[in-house]
Amino acid sequence: MSERITKSMARNIYFGGSAFAILVFVGLTLDTVAQVPKLSHSDKITESVAKGKNLWEVNNCVGCHTIMGEGAYYAPELGNVFERRGAGDEVAFKSYLNGWMAAQPLSEPGRRKMPQFHLNEEQVNNLADFLIWTSHIEDHEWPPNIEG
Questions:
Q1: What is the pLDDT of residue 116?
Q2: pTM of the predicted protein model
Q3: Fewest Cβ atoms closer than 10 Å to its Cβ: which of 8, 66, 73, 109?
Q4: Are residues 8 and 49 in the same domain?
Q5: Pair (35, 55) in one structural domain
Q6: Neighbours of 67 (CB within 10 A)
Q7: Distance CA 48, CA 56 (A)
Q8: What 8-state DSSP symbol labels residue 80?
């Protein structure tokens, strides 16, 4: 072998490396697409969950809160709020969320104020169903601490 790389050797390295990278990319993409249904549990999306997601978007909750790290970091992470505030009990969580939403805005000094959205009980329950559904998505231990 010569000590110098020829044009044909460089071309072969370039095309061989590119083909290898493309194959790895396609393989990882197919693996990810195959895993999404079992990780997201999209089969459990009910009408109530969809309405709750719509409320989340219409009221721009993501403008202050995050879900699984996506959104603004002004207010707490809500991907794990069902475990934090409901302890895994749907009835207790819905009761908590109804009371919390009705009490806004709180007037505690030094606390950020959450607006009053004037949601009725059905809307808050839909939002709770969305947050409960979100809490069941495999998030690989996100957030790193319980309070988000």
A1: 92
A2: 0.76
A3: 109
A4: no
A5: no
A6: 22
A7: 12
A8: T
Structure tokens at 91: 């009835």
Residue numbers of the chain with a pLDDT score lower than 70: 1-2, 148
Gap between the Cα atoms of 75 and 39, Å rounded: 26
pLDDT at 137: 85
Residues 33, 58, single domain; the answer is no
Q: In whole angstroms, what is the distance from residue 101 CA to residue 124 CA?
A: 8
Smallest CA-to-CA distance from 128 within 106, 99, 98 is with: 98
Long-range contacts of 57-64 (CB under 8 A, 24+ apart): 59/117, 64/114
Q: Which residue has the tokens 């207010």?
A: 75
Q: Count how many domains the chain has.
A: 2
Tokens matching residue 53: 């997601």
Is 21 found in the same domain as 89?
no
Summary mean pLDDT of the chain: 90
Question: In one letter, which amino acid is 17?
Answer: G
Domain containing 15 equals: 1-40
